């Protein structure tokens, strides 16, 4: 399937939760994440993570706009970034 595989909302949430558990120092991290998400290979999970990191870097540098769905409140973008659990997890797992 590779990096073009579709991720459901449920899988994304499971992925987010698993990232908080399996940090960069976890042995077999990608296999553990894949098992937690279900229906994805370790390679798909790793690529999904890499794409999220790329998106985050683009948003932080101003090269990528924040997706409309992410604009849940009228909170300032800098505050949204710090309130977003996925941002926190990714920042702390790099």
From TrEMBL:
<dbReference type="InterPro" id="IPR001005">
    <property type="entry name" value="SANT/Myb"/>
</dbReference>
<protein>
    <recommendedName>
        <fullName>SANT domain-containing protein</fullName>
    </recommendedName>
</protein>
<keyword id="KW-0805">Transcription regulation</keyword>
<dbReference type="GO" id="GO:0003700">
    <property type="term" value="F:DNA-binding transcription factor activity"/>
</dbReference>
<feature type="domain" description="SANT">
    <location>
        <begin position="2"/>
        <end position="57"/>
    </location>
</feature>
<dbReference type="Pfam" id="PF00249">
    <property type="entry name" value="Myb_DNA-binding"/>
</dbReference>
<feature type="region of interest" description="Disordered">
    <location>
        <begin position="59"/>
        <end position="94"/>
    </location>
</feature>
<dbReference type="GO" id="GO:0005634">
    <property type="term" value="C:nucleus"/>
</dbReference>
<dbReference type="InterPro" id="IPR044636">
    <property type="entry name" value="RADIALIS-like"/>
</dbReference>
<dbReference type="InterPro" id="IPR017884">
    <property type="entry name" value="SANT_dom"/>
</dbReference>
<feature type="domain" description="Myb-like">
    <location>
        <begin position="5"/>
        <end position="53"/>
    </location>
</feature>
<keyword id="KW-0804">Transcription</keyword>
<dbReference type="InterPro" id="IPR009057">
    <property type="entry name" value="Homeodomain-like_sf"/>
</dbReference>
<keyword id="KW-0539">Nucleus</keyword>
């Amino acid at each position: 399937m590779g990096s073009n595989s579709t991720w459901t909302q449920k899988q994304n949430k499971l992925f987010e939760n698993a990232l908080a558990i399996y940090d960069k120092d976890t042995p077999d991290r990608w296999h553990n994440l894949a098992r937690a998400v279900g229906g994805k290979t370790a390679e798909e999970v790793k690529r999904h993570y890499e794409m999220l990191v790329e998106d985050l870097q683009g948003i932080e540098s101003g090269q990528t706009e924040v997706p409309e769905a992410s604009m849940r409140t009228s909170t300032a973008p800098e505050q949204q970034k710090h309130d977003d659990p996925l941002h926190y997890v990714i920042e702390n797992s790099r």
